[in-house]
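Entry 14. Two folds queued back to back today. First construct below, sequence then structure tokens.
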Amino acid sequence: MAVHYGPTHLATVAGEQGPMMLFTLAGDSFTRIGQVLFVTSLLAAGLAFHNAVNRIIFTLGRDHVLPEPLGWTGRRGGAPWVASLTQTTLGLLVITTYAVSGTDPVVHLFFWLGTTGGLGVLLLITTTSLAITTHHLRTHTPRQAILPAIATLILGVMSWLAVTGFPTLLGVPNTAIVGWLLPGGYLALAFVGVVLAVRLRGRHPDAYATLGTTPTTTSPVGAR
């Protein structure tokens, strides 16, 4: 792209054409093909994301962490329809809010929230590595904690760089509140999660002890 547009014009063209900058290099026909492939890839990614989140919501509802109806499944195929419908409704509300407010959906919905979601995945992986390390230390298997500890250290550094440089990732000034508000939301969610976990362990220790232990392949739970 630098050769085609020229190094001095690269930033200007990128600002004008956005995602289409790459596609226009190949001509009109390939541009249309690129647009179709781009949209279908977004649909595939959205479906995969929906299924993954749907599974998490269903599992938490089944284990009584979230409201029990979220763990209900259909009578025919056993699909977690309540969790799926709930997620779809929330997504529709967010999209409608952006549409009504006139906010740019590409920048403020797709790019900002997509980047925030990527940060969330990184933080989850880091937390998981830390949990694995802690588990091995508690069960007196320190040799098996070496690699998870190394992974935790590396991921921790990556998470720190991502959080401190998050305004840069969003393309906003370091003083912009959105650059700190979005990653700060994960801290608030983590606090709420810890409070709910402590509450569940105190009030329903049996349910707390069996979290995540329910078989993944079962007959429909509360099929409706």
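Second construct, same run, same settings:
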Amino acid sequence: MKIDTPKVLRTDKLSVQLENGFLRYIKWDGKEVLRMVYYTVRDENWDVIPQEIESIEINEIDEGFKVELNVKTVHPQIDFLWRCKIVARGSELTFDIQGEALSNFTRNRIGLCILHPIETCKGKTVTLTHGNGTTSHNHFPKHISPNQPFQNISTMHWELGKVTVNLQFKGDVFETEDQRNWLDASYKTYCTPLELPFPVLMKNGDKIHQTVRLSISSEDDVHGISKKDTYQLRLGDKYFQLPLLGLEANTEYLGAYSLEKLKSLPLNHLRVEIRLSQSDWRLRLNQRLQQSRLLRLPIELVVYPYKNNHRKLLCFPWQGLQISSIIILSEKEKVISRSNLKNPLNDFRKAFPNISIGTGTDFFFTELNRNRPDTEGLDFLSFSSNAQIHASDDLSIIETAQTYTDVLATAHTFAQGLPIHISPVTLKPRSNPNATVSISLEQQRLNRIDIRQTKPLTALWFLTSLKHLAQDKATQVTFFQTLGEEGVLMADRRFAFTDFSIKENELFPIFHAMELLGRYSNWKLLQCTSSHPLLFEGLVFEKNQKREAILLNFTNKAIRLQVEGESFVVSEKEWKVIAIG
């Protein structure tokens, strides 16, 4: 049973959005106090196991509501049943889960997770009670914490104005991580602690019982968004430049139509990846370089050295090609060590003296944050990112875009003034650095495919992400591939994935979004702020005292926005270009 329409449930001042058995946007008097409460099963590779509601019952009770539901995992080897009860009365809410394994399987995590919104929690003092009864005082981190800021939690409370939020946990040991490391817009309190061994064997008949209790006390002076408030895009007075934009080359055939379309995009470079441990690296390199030659784009060369094979690149025939930057990474290390970086860096520096050379990680910002490199001799730092490490629903994807603000702010604290490149940015994870069980290359490819690559959501997420990347000083960014399932238009063949009914050469919405940016190549990006950034966003451009805006609607219904006193209607999950003034 899939419940597509979220349902808002309320007490007097407490409101929640019930969505597929989870609670989202828990608010007190309109002010968000928790982003989400949910339960999860994650397998030995940290993959989230899909779940399906078998039954649900929602009832009004005295001063509140009660929800009871049964939920089962949807997986051929992992069979697990949840029995959930959610009860809210007045200023209190209890989320109770009882689970039972109906098969033998291994897991890395199982149980409740609570998400804390960044906007209302960042920097706030939090008081923790630990398992041994002691208390401590801490803060929700401003810059992104590389490791768990809070551990061994049994209760926590913090203040939002004169509202005090209290959480009590039972059934396991909980700790908190900073999910901005993975681009999520939240801190997450979860169980079981990562310091304990995993994966863990769950046997048929094993049971768990966990409870989280939220209680709120208030002096009634904090008010959220009133129903009379309008959706407004407010303009600021600062100006920014968009980061240099590129795509990743792949081995797809670049026909005349695809070539013509890709040439119309405002691209600065093409990412070309070379793994020198592969016996056919020359063939793979030449296949990708062919796209660069045809598109006549500079190359962002990404090199994974193997022994001293990188020196073969020094005498490679680069004639007719322009390398704009080189990223040196490692296949065996999440962030290449200084000892393994030394020889490639020195050799490339001598061979390409006028080209920017950097390093970082091919994985998430987490790895760069935890393994901050020595910046001596480097021209920039780089990391990759994607929108779906912990959640894959549309709302969670949109939420990640604004997290680039904190990611870049944190990166600049240890980059020693170096520019920040992000390469590549994808919709789904490209690989799993923490997997405990290996999977085939073909399965890895299939895991990267998402039908929403062909939908407006990805274009809206791209434009919103680019706004935050520009405002927070990313220098260069590579989004998606050129062609195919992970690209901006369909290649000259059909998708192998049965869920895709895409015609050859079809242009995806993400293509049109990138094409639109070409209109503003010589314009400045003007600072602007959305009154409801989870519902809509905007990009405002200015040139010669002329202003235009791209308005983005993330919702499933048309909304009316106010910009500089004028009113505009934007259709559901669409964007609209307007003139201002």
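Quick look at the second one. The two ends are 49 Å apart (CA to CA). The domain at 242-519 is CATH 3.20.20.80 (TIM Barrel).
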